[in-house]
Structure formats: C-alpha cells, structure tokens
Automatic annotation (TrEMBL):
The keyword Lipid metabolism does not apply. InterPro entries: ARM-like (IPR011989), ARM-type_fold (IPR016024), Nipped-B_C (IPR024986), Scc2/Nipped-B (IPR033031). Keywords: Cell cycle, Nucleus, Repeat. This is Sister chromatid cohesion protein. Its main location: nucleus. One of its GO terms (cellular component) is Scc2-Scc4 cohesin loading complex. GO terms for molecular function: chromatin binding; cohesin loader activity. Belongs to the SCC2/Nipped-B family. Coiled coil: none annotated.
Length: 1377
C-alpha cells in the first residue's frame, strides 16, 4: 500500500529525474554472470509495480577492441590477466598517492552565508494527531482484510507478505489502545486470516521443515517469522479489552501455544546441536534469528498476561507449564559457551519464560503444588558450571540463577497475598518456605554428592547475595526456613556425619552474612525509607510485584501514614531508567528491618549454641564449628567475649584431633591480630601448639609465633615462646624447621640493629636471650646451633651487624657492677657470650678479651657459679689468637696456675686447654709439664697406701690428671717425663703412663666417690685417644663395673660414654660441615665393626662401645627407680639417633617405656618409638607382643590393673598407616589368645586379661576393619571356652579356678563393651570372617553409645576367694550366648 502511494505521487521535479541503466557491452558473451535473484522484502518491492522504461536512459557503450588503449603511451592486452593485474596495481598505487595528497591539511572552504539554513529551507516536520493515526490504522486493517479475504468455502492457501503482517500488527496495536469504536467484525476477520495463515504454517513446519544445515535454517526463517507475527496478532486481540466473546475462541490460543512449542522443538533445539566450530556460518543469520527470538519472548509474555486475566484451560496450561519447565531447566536449552545458542538472545526468552512461570503460580492457586514440585524436581538437574548457572543479571549488577529467581518470586507471590488477610503473621509464606526447605535439604541429604553439593552451594550463595536488597524481600523467609531445617537436621543423632558437617557449614555462612549486616548500623527514619524506595524507580524486572511484597511486609509492622503514602507513590511511579547511582548500595533501613526478623533470631540462637558444636564428640563437627567461629569473629569481634565460647575453645585447644587444634589455633591467630592487647593471654596456647603432634598445627603455630612475639609485653612469655621455637629446630618437618629459624633470627637478633628499636627494647632482647641460656641444656644446645649455623656465620649484612651489636651489648652487661647483684642474669649473660664465642671464635678479639680480664683474674669472681663460663669464653677465644699482650697473658696464666687445685670439674675442663694455649704463646710449656709431673708424684703415695684412697684430695688430683691427659700433647716432652722418675718406660707414651696411674684407682680398694672420679677421668682421657677404649685393661674395668650392682658407678660410666658420643658427633659435624643434621646422617662404613677398615675408626669405637653394653643398658631402662633409668634411657636414645644401636634390639624396651607412669620416661619412649617407626616401620610390626610382655613384667600388679592408655599410645604412632594398624590389631588379638591359652599362672592370666580389656576398650579405632579384627579374635576365643565348659555342672571352688573364670569374664565384658558401644552384631562379624561384609571397612566406627568398661568387680575379686565368682561368670556367659 505504501508502494502504491509512492508510485501514484505526481511531481514535476520528480518526473524529470532520470536514472542511468546499468552499462552492458553490445556483444554480450556467454560468460556474463547470472541475474541476481532478489529475496524477501527486496523481491516484494521489486515485483510490486511494473517498471516504466521512460524513467531510464540507455548510454551508448561499445564493445572494447582487442587492444584496448588504456594508456596514451602503451597498449594493453585486455585478455591477458597478468598484464591487466600489473596495470591495475600500478594505477591503484597512483590513485592512493593522489588521495593522500588530496587529504593533506588545507584551508577549509568557508560556507557561503547565503546558503545557511533558514526557516524557509528547513525540512518541514509533519505531525499527525492521535485521531489521524487511529484512522490510518483502521484504514490499514480494512485494506488488509479486503486484500486477503477469507471465505468459509475457500480452500486456497493464504500467502500474506511479512511486511503486510508487520504493518497490520502495528496498526492493530494502535486500534486496541482504545476499544470504544473498534469494528469487531474487522477484528474478527483479521483473526481468521492470521489463524488460517498460522495453521497452514504449523502444518508446513510439522511436515516440511527438517533443519539439518544452516541453509535449512535460512529457508525456514520466513515461515517462522510470518507465524510469529500472526500469533502476536491473535494474542493481542485475546489480551484486549474488547467485550465481544466471539473473538475469544480457545482455538486461537491453542494454535499460539502449539506454534511456540514448535519454535523450541523444531528450530531452537536443532540450532543447539550445531558445533561452535561452525559459528561463522551463523553470523549472517544472527540478526533474523535474534529478531525471531525476541518476538517469541513477547509471545510468552502475551500468553502469561492472558492467563493472568482469564485462566487457561487445564490442557493448555499443562502444555505451557511443561514447555516453560524445559526451557528454564533442561540442559539442552542451556546457552553456555560450547552451545550455538550462546550467539543468540536466549536471555530474553528465559526471562519471559520465568515471568510466565511466576505469573501462573501467582494467578493459578490450584497449580501451585504442581509448579513447586516441578521446581524442586529440577533442582538436582541444575548445571554446576558457574558460567551456565548464573545467567540472570539483575539490576544490581551481578548475576544469579533462574532457579533462585523463580523460587524467590514464588514466595513473594504468597507474601503479597498475606497482607489481605487480617491479623496474618505470614503463616502461608512461612509454611511454603518450610516445605521448600524440607524438600531441598532432604534431596541433598539423600543423594549427597559433590555435584549436588555444588548446586546447593550456588543456591545459598544467590540467596545470601540477594538478602540485603528490598526488591527480593522474600529471601529472608527462605533463609529462615533453611536455617531452621539445618538446625533440625543437626539435632538428629542419626544424620550421616558428612551431611551434618555440610549443613553446619552452610548455617555458618548464613549467620556470617546476617551478622555482617550489623556493621551497616540501624536506621528507621521516614527519609531513609523514601531513599530506599527510590531504588524501585530503576528496577524493571517484576517491579510491581516486588514492591507489593515489600509493602505487605513493611506495613504489617507499622501504621505510619507517611510511609504508606511513600509506598503508594512508588507503586504508581512508572519505570524510567535502569541506571542506579550506586547499584550495590545496601540501605541500613532495610538491614535494620531484616535484623528484626526471625532469621536474625535463629542466627543469634545458633551462635549461643555454637559451644555445643565445639564440644561435639565428632571430630569433623568440632573442626567445622571452630572454622565457623573464625569466620564469624572477623565480622563480629565481640563474639569471643561469650563465656561459653571461651570455655569451649579452651577445651578444644587440648582436643585429641589435630584438625580441631589446627582450626582453633587459626582462630586464635586471627583474634590476636585484631586484639593485640590480649596477646599475653594466648601465650600458653601458642606454646602448646608449638609442641603439637600435628604437623599442620605446629606449622601454623610457628608462623603465628612470629606475629605474636612482638606483641607480648611480659618477658617470661617471650622467653617461653622463644624456647619453644628453638625446640622446633629439631622438628621432623623441614618447613617447620625453616620457619622457626627464620622467626628466631628476626625476633632475637635483627631488632638489635633496627632503627625503630628503642634502647629499652634492645635490653629486653638481650634479657630474653640470657633467660633462654638459663632454660636448660636442650634449649641451650639448639641456641648454639642457631648461632653457629645461621647467625654468626651468616653472609647477610643485617645479621652480621646484629652479631657485632650482640657481643657489644653482652660485654656491657657483664662488666656492669650492678649486674653482680643479679647472679642468675650475669651467669646467663656469660653463658650466652661463651656460646657465641664457641660458635665463632674470631668474633671475640684481643680487645674484648682484655675487657673481660677483671672477671678472669678477680679472686672474688672465682666463687661465682658463672666463672666456668668466663673460662669458656677465654678457652674458645684463644683458638684463633696466636699472641697476646704480656699485660694480659702473664697475669691470667699465673692466676690460673694458682687456682688449678681449687677449680671445679667443669672449670678445669675449660681452664686446662686455655693454660696449654697460653703456655704455647709465651713458650712456658715446661711449666705445665712440671705441673703434670707434680700431680703424678702427688698420686704415688695414694697408690702405695690404699688406706688413704678415701681422702678428698685424691679426687682433685685425678681430675687434674685426666684433663692434662685429654688436652695436652706431652709426647714431645718425653725426656722430661722419663727423667722425672715417675715410672715412664722406654717406648711408652706419656698418655699410657697417665692412664696407668688413673686405673690404679678404679678397683674396689678405692672409696666409691673417688672410684667414680677415677672412672670418669679414665673416659675423659680415652675421649681424646679413642683407640684406648679398645685396650684390654680399659675394657676389663668397664665390664667389671657394668656387671656390678653399684648403680652410681654404672651411671658414671654411662654419663661419660654419652659425653664421648656427643663430643665425637660434634667433631663429625664440624668435619662434614653443616649440611648434615648430625653424624647419624653420615654414611657409616660398616666394615669398622669387623676391624677391617681404618676409615671412620672413631665410628667403629663408638659403635663397639654401644653394642657391648646395650643389653645391660636396656635392662636398666626398665628399672623401677625412675632416677636410675634416666641416664640409660638417654644413652639408648643418643645411640639410636647416631645410628650405633640396632633398633630391633631396642624397640621392645622402648614400647615398655611408654607404659611408665613417669611422664618424662613415657614421653621419651614415645619420641624414640616415633623416630624408629618413621625409619624402620617393618621392624616394629613384629615386636608388639614382646613390647607388651616387657611392659607387663616391669610393672607392679596394682599398676597393671588400673592402666588403660598404653595400647592407645602405641596405636597413635602406627595409625597413620593402614597396614601397620591392621598388624597392630592382629598382634593384640594374638596376645590375648596367648595369655588365655599359654599363661599357666591363673593370677597372672587374670591380671593380664584385665590389662588387655582396659586398654583395648580405650582404643580409638580408625577403621571398622580394625574393630572387626579385635571382636573376631574375642568371639573365637569365647566360643571355644563355651564349648570347653558346656558340660561342667558342679565345679569345685578354688582361687585358681575362680581366677580362670574371672579372666574369661574380663574378655566377655570387653566383647560386650565393644559390640554395645559400636553397635556390632554377630552377623556383622560373621560377614567379616567370611569376607562377605557389606560394611565399608575403611570408614571410622561410629560411637553410638559413649560408655566406659567396668571391671571393678573383677579387680576387687582378683584374689579369687569369692565363692560366687563362677556362678556370676556363667550368667554372663549365658547372656553372651
């Protein structure tokens, strides 16, 4: 019609226009291309009117000659492609150059003012009135109906161009704006035309269209587009306010629904099957398909609107519901990056589908159960891909999933209805939310899997994101119901642990989100409410319903007329723009509203009851509860002030599980960071964590110590933390060791040279180091290692500066007269200085040594306990000094010679090597020789007169002689000794002579104290001359004394041997460098044990001494006197560390040590056991029974009857390995069998049976298989005993017989205890024995009843004199059967 108007328009100026016809050659060849075929709108316009040839003029174009003269200079062969290409390229280059020149900067031509636009020359804008537009629209519809008439008898097909359909559709929209004067007959005719067209196209789609290629898509788009417009016409009429019922025939709606269904099935679904590799072929079609998709989304909305106005028939409603469910939730309609649908506007379709889905729920109450059921059934089918999952972008700027949107809108639909009910408390809303929560949690629990967990996580995350925004007010109801359901599940004792942990985690996330809203503050002013409502002016999606839902909630809690007016004004406001000033703004007035709701109340109750979860018997629950506490405390710091929480956390610091302890410590770390003033209160937990058995706990604690230490204000706390860090230098885990070393350097040394460190802080640092030196030999040893390996020899400049400052400050302290009053501090300072000098002698030069002279030569200082440390400084500083000033050397030398007889054993150990060095410097060694000769002569009378061997002076002479022999090389002065008349023979070494003198006092004729000194001195000399340990005379002395019953002498020998091993290990480390941890890590030449290797001869001597006396020492380890066993245990431990002892020989004794009541002995045994297990696991597996037997034989009966943790200590070491755990359990089972069958003493059998029962009952089984191993052994034994005693009627009572029965009763009680505690049935054991168990043997046994085994009656009757014993045992046996 538009074309007709244009063609009929008459204008002289227009008629004078002529168009030049396309030029063609006069002699067309056969190579001329085919005529271009027009399609669609272009073809329609081209064919609409005949072409008037008068409008064109034909140009005269002649055919080009064979030699076309394209240039004035050359001839070109137009048929030669290469010639023409070269010519063209030449002129293209030429024209490009000319174009560039033409675009160079030139003065712009000024526009002629006369040509400026004026009112007369401006384009005239013509505006039509509403009435005129309405008339045009009516004319268009009438013309359309006349042009495409439909008669009832007419069988021909309707062929309406798309342009006509679009025109009439637009006109119809204009007409239906006002239905007062609408010609219903014309509308009805239009309906019939469009319906006939639609019906015909539906048949074509069903029968003729089969999309397998992109050409098929292109060919089908016309039909689909034509049908979409026709459907829209039908639906617009159905949704109009025309009252003529003849227009509302259900067939129209059925056809519309059928067409929409076909679009999804026959177009959208095939498109989704195409590969993204073919996306280039989709590009030309994207526009038309996208336009069609948008039209289809409008059709869905029209259907939804019609249903809201006039509910659809059940059949139609069901069809549309199924279609919407498929589009929204089925995977085939997901438009991820791998699908061709991602190139098309699927969002518009899904948004419309979601709105229609919600509209049906809102308007069709009878359909709500079905729709809810469909929504929940599709919950497990949701995608776990984040890119696919969250495809609905809300106005706030972030995306959520369609499932969440529909879920919330369902609830809002009911929420907005509750306001109509008087005195309603939103019971319907709460009820529907509770139903949904129950269904979702049930599905998740019943079919729990990583996939389902991810889906549920996404839903909860969406709800938590939407919670603070008022347009999603129903989220608070949904989260409240979920929280209630989680708590309900957690209270159910039969819930699977995995589900409990997961729901507890989700509940923690909800609480964390709610608690975080408190930070926004509170507000309830009217102005703030109005500000909040302004957000709705920028919301497009489901705006009215969202606002209505919020209004229903808000007005239930207030009667403020101003607020009501504000809500009404917001409802009447029309959408303007989706651009918010702050799209993520959270309004405090709305968060205050949420915090006054039931959700906040549930969260607060949960936080109050968090202590119960912290005390749960289940490790994973406790761990998760602590982690929740950590997260919530970050947004609510005052949470830790709760007494219940504090008590529960304190208990968890001692939890049996390292996972729980690690989680608690993580919480403490974060809490202290936020509250540095409370750092000292957490020093004890930190120190416990630094010694924890769990690697992860120690690692976290070590890192935390680095942060906590500077915040500590009490010195003793700093010392405690530093000592624990020093002990971690021996940690089995490399990362813990490295972190500890780094922390110690940063905390104890670098502050000395830090510019930010005050003098008081430097004094504090030195004081801490001094206190560390006074904290024990183990800590001091590690401090020396730290100094030697990582501080004093460090190449880093900062550390180098720190060590110089350290020595400077220590000297200031030790020379400070005020320090003389602080004896302990002065002693520690000198010990620290001695450790530094010992670690690196060249750090202490002559100047510093001279500064120390008053402390060396002052008579008053010699009575100070710290004098030995002063001498140690002198000894090691002289190592690198070759000459000294006489003013220092002579006084010091004279003073030491004068004091030799008065120095203690430890002081002599430092003074003798110092004197030998000083004598070497000033060439006065003969003076030292004379001292040695004098000492030998003083000893001679004691050799002749054995009656004097009790005198005190003998011991001092022996000590002097021993250190002379150890540190001084007298062989070069052989003649002096030979001529002194002290008995030196020809070719005899001076050391041998010294040794002979000492051995004279190692027999029984010498008083015990002096004999101990003599033996210790003998070891001292042999330490420097290790081959002497192999001499027959020395070995005889050691053998005799080790076989004696005098424990004091044995202890002296062991102490000397331990010092010998330590000294040789230190020498080995220095020789090998610091890359090795100790000589135990060096490769040992085993040939030295057989005397055929001279390499590592020292190792051979050490190993020989250990092997010779190991069995005797192992027996001493199990001594009933704890004081006696300490040194033997240390000897065994050190021998194992250095690799000189056979672990197989020691392991049984070590296991027995773990049963000791002495905490130190037990702890040492556990450490040795763990070390051997890590290195020699297979050795341990065959030694359990022997270890248990040794433990039983070394203990008193009273101790055996009450001990219950021994097996658990052994089990904790091997529980990390499945195979080792099983072997341990089998060893226990066999041990019970051996005791029951081979032990002849009835009393011992009873006592041992009680021991086994008590200890096995307290085992913390890690797997069901371990539990079945024990119960299977028990049952086999008890069944055998039942068979043996079934025929006994009258049994004579005797104590031995009673004890036999009591031992059986102990085993029965153990069996009953295990089966009752873990709910083990006989059928379960049968299945296990037959290898047909359906129970997962790897799972941890679940404690159903936390009970303790009661053997008190058996213990009370251990004598076996009670005549009722057999009767009661038989009753127990019958109950078992």
């Amino acid at each position: 019609m538009i074309i007709e108007e244009v063609m009929n328009f008459d204008d002289e100026e227009l008629q004078s226009i002529r168009f030049e016809r396309f030029t063609t050659i006069q002699q067309p060849s056969e190579n001329v291309g085919p005529t271009v075929e027009l399609k669609g709108l272009e073809a329609f316009m081209f064919n609409a009117q005949p072409i008037n040839e008068s409008f064109y003029q034909d140009p005269s174009v002649s055919a080009p000659p064979e030699w076309s003269k394209l240039s004035v200079r050359k001839k070109y062969d137009s048929t030669n492609k290469k010639v023409m290409d070269d010519h063209n390229q030449k002129y293209v280059t030429k024209f490009n150059n000319l174009r560039k020149q033409g675009t160079s900067k030139k003065a712009k031509r000024k526009r002629d003012p006369e040509q400026d636009g004026s009112e007369e020359r401006n384009r005239k804008v013509i505006k039509f009135s509403e009435l005129e537009l309405h008339q045009i629209a009516e004319t268009t519809v009438k013309t359309f109906v006349l042009e495409f008439p439909i008669n009832e008898s007419q069988e021909g097909k309707v062929n309406v161009p798309i342009e006509k359909l679009e025109e009439v559709s637009d006109s119809l929209t204009k007409i239906l704006e006002s239905t007062k004067d609408v010609d219903t007959q014309e509308v009805a005719n239009l309906q019939r035309i469009c319906h006939k067209l639609l019906s015909e196209n539906i048949e074509k789609i069903k029968n003729d269209i089969n999309i397998n290629s992109f050409d098929d898509i292109a060919n089908s788009l016309v039909i689909f587009s034509q049908s979409a417009i026709a459907t829209e016409v039908l639906l617009e009429i159905l949704n109009s306010s025309i009252e003529d019922k003849s227009l509302f025939w259900d067939g129209y709606l059925d056809s519309a629904i059928e067409f929409v269904t076909l679009v999804f099935q026959d177009l959208l679904l095939p498109i989704s099957q195409f590969s993204m590799q073919e996306s280039a072929q989709m590009e030309p079609l994207k526009y038309n398909i996208g336009r069609l998709f948008r039209e289809v989304s409008n059709l869905l909305r029209h259907i939804g609107n019609y249903n809201s106005k006039s509910q659809l028939e059940d059949q139609a409603l069901t069809r549309i519901e199924i279609l919407l469910t498929q589009v929204l939730f089925e995977e085939k309609y997901q438009h991820d990056k791998k699908s061709m649908l991602s190139l098309l506007p699927m969002d518009s379709i899904k948004i419309s589908a979601g709105l229609v889905f919600v509209d049906i729920f809102r308007s069709c109450k009878d359909q709500r159960p079905y729709l809810l059921n469909e929504l929940i059934l599709n919950f497990p089918k949701l995608s776990t891909n984040k890119a696919n999952f969250r495809q609905f972008k809300i106005e706030r700027g972030f995306s959520v999933q369609y499932f969440t949107v529909i879920l919330v809108k369902f609830i809002q639909s009911i929420e907005s209805e509750d306001i109509k009910v008087k005195d309603s408390g939103f019971e319907d809303t709460i009820s529907i939310c509770d139903q949904i929560a129950v269904h979702l949690t049930t599905i998740t629990a019943d079919k729990f899997s990583p996939t389902l967990r991810t889906i549920f996580d996404f839903i909860v995350e969406d709800l938590l994101v939407l919670l603070p925004y008022p347009e999603w007010s129903a989220v608070e109801f949904m989260l409240t119901s979920l929280a209630k359901q989680f708590l309900s599940v957690l209270k159910n004792s039969e819930t699977v642990l995995q589900i409990e942990v997961y729901f507890l985690e989700i509940l923690g996330l909800i609480c964390e989100r709610v608690v975080s809203l408190e930070k926004l503050g509170k507000s309830e002013s009217n102005d703030d409410i109005k500000e909040m409502l302004k957000d709705f002016n920028c919301i497009r999606f489901d705006r009215q319903n969202s606002l209505q839902s919020l209004r229903s909630r808000w007005l239930k809690s207030t009667v403020n007329e101003e607020i009501q007016a504000s809500f009404q004004q917001a409802l009447e406001f029309k959408f303007q723009s989706s651009d918010m000033n702050d799209i993520n703004k959270v309004h405090p007035v709305y968060t205050s509203f949420i915090l006054g709701s039931g959700l906040n109340l549930i969260c607060m109750n949960f936080l109050d009851s968090l202590g119960q979860f912290l005390n749960s018997p289940k490790v994973k629950i406790r761990t998760k509860a602590v982690k929740i506490l950590v997260n919530i405390s970050e947004v609510k710091p005052n949470l830790f002030r709760s007494k219940k929480i504090q008590e529960a956390l304190s208990a968890r610091l001692l939890d049996a599980s390292p996972l729980v302890r690690d989680a608690v410590f993580d919480f403490i770390g974060k809490y202290v960071q936020a509250h540095p003033n409370e750092a000292d209160n957490f020093c004890a937990p930190l120190c416990n964590a630094l010694g924890d058995t769990g690697i992860s706990v120690r690692k976290r604690a070590t890192k935390f110590a680095k942060d906590l230490y500077p915040k500590l204000t009490r010195r003793y706390n700093k010392v405690e933390v530093a000592c624990k860090l020093l002990k971690r230098m021996d940690d089995e885990e490399d990362s813990v060791r490295n972190i500890s070393i780094s922390a110690l350097i940063e905390l104890l040394f670098l502050p000395l040279v830090s510019h930010s460190c005050t003098p008081e802080e430097r004094v504090m640092t030195i004081s801490v180091l001094v206190d560390i030196c006074n904290s024990g030999t183990k800590v001091l040893s590690n401090l020396e290692v730290l100094l030697e390996r990582h501080v004093l020899n460090s190449p880093e400049k900062g550390v180098q500066d720190a060590k110089k400052k350290l020595i400077e400050l220590i000297l200031e302290f030790v020379n400070d007269e005020s320090m003389n009053e602080k004896v302990l501090f002065k002693s520690g300072a000198l010990l620290l200085l001695a450790s530094c000098v010992k670690s690196q002698p060249n750090i202490f030069g002559q100047d510093q040594l001279i500064a120390l002279q008053p402390l060396i030569t002052d008579e008053a200082q010699t009575i100070d306990p710290s004098y030995g440390y002063t001498l140690r400084v002198l000894r090691y500083s002289l190592v690198h000094i070759n000459s000294l000033q006489p003013s220092f050397l002579v006084p010091v030398q004279n003073f030491l010679f004068k004091r030799l007889s008065k120095l203690t054993f430890q002081e002599l150990d430092e003074a003798i090597p110092s004197l030998w060095k000083l004598c070497d410097m000033n060439s006065t060694k003969p003076r030292m020789i004379n001292s040695v000769i004098a000492t030998l002569k003083f000893l001679y009378p004691y050799i002749e007169n054995k009656q004097r061997r009790h005198e005190k002076g003998l011991g001092k002479l022996l000590q002097l002689l021993g250190f002379f022999g150890k540190y001084c090389n007298f062989q070069e002065f052989y003649d002096s000794f030979k001529n002194s008349g002290i008995g030196l023979k020809n070719n005899e070494s001076v050391v041998s002579l010294i040794l002979k003198y000492i051995m004279q006092f190692c027999d029984d004729s010498t008083e015990i104290k002096n004999r101990i000194i003599a033996i210790s001195t003998l070891i001292t000399v042999c330490t420097s001359y290790t081959k002497l340990f192999g001499s027959e005379e020395v070995i005889k002395i050691f053998d005799r004394e080790m076989d004696s019953n005098d424990t004091k002498i044995v202890m002296a020998i062991l102490r000397g041997l331990i010092d010998f091993l330590n000294e040789k290990d230190a020498d080995a480390q220095k020789k090998a460098g610091y890359e090795e941890k100790s000589s135990a890590d060096n490769k040992l030449d085993v040939r030295v044990f057989h005397g055929i290797s001279s390499v590592n001869a020292v190792d051979g001597v050490c190993a020989g001494m250990v092997q010779r006396y190991l069995n005797k020492v192992l027996k001493l380890c199990l001594s009933s006197e704890s004081q006696v066993s300490y040194l033997p245990i240390q000897f065994v431990k050190r021998a194992l560390e250095l690799g000189y002892a056979n672990p197989k020989m020691c392991i049984a004794t070590i296991m027995a040590l773990e049963s000791s009541n002495n905490e130190y002995i037990r702890k040492t045994g556990i450490e040795m056991h763990q070390d051997i297990y890590e290195k020699h696991e297979s050795i341990i597996e065959s030694s359990y029974r022997e270890g248990v037997s040794l433990a039983l034989s070394s203990k008193q009966e009273s101790e055996i009857l009450v001990q219950g943790d021994f097996f658990n200590l052994l089990y904790r070491i091997v529980s990390g390995s499945v195979s080792s755990s099983k072997k341990f359990m089998k060893a226990l089972g066999k041990g019970m069998s051996i005791i029951s069958t081979k032990e002849k003493d009835p009393r011992k059998k009873l006592v041992y049976s009680v021991f086994y029962a008590n200890n096995i009952a307290n085992l913390e089984f890690k797997s069901m298989e371990e539990l079945f191993i024990i119960t299977s052994h028990l049952r086999s034994y008890l069944v055998g005993f039942t068979a043996d005693t079934s025929e006994e009627e009258n049994v004579e009572n005797s104590s031995s017989r009673n004890q036999e029965w009591l031992s059986i009763m102990a085993m029965m009680k153990l069996y009953n205890h295990l089966t009752y505690k873990y709910h083990i049935l006989d059928s379960h054991i049968d299945d296990y024995d037959s290898h047909a168990s359906e129970i997962d043997l790897k799972q941890t046994p679940k404690v159903l009843r936390d009970v303790k085994i009661d053997l008190s009656w058996i213990v009370e009757n251990v004598e076996g004199e009670n005549p009722e014993i057999i009767t009661k045992c038989k009753e127990e046996l019958k109950q078992l059967i």
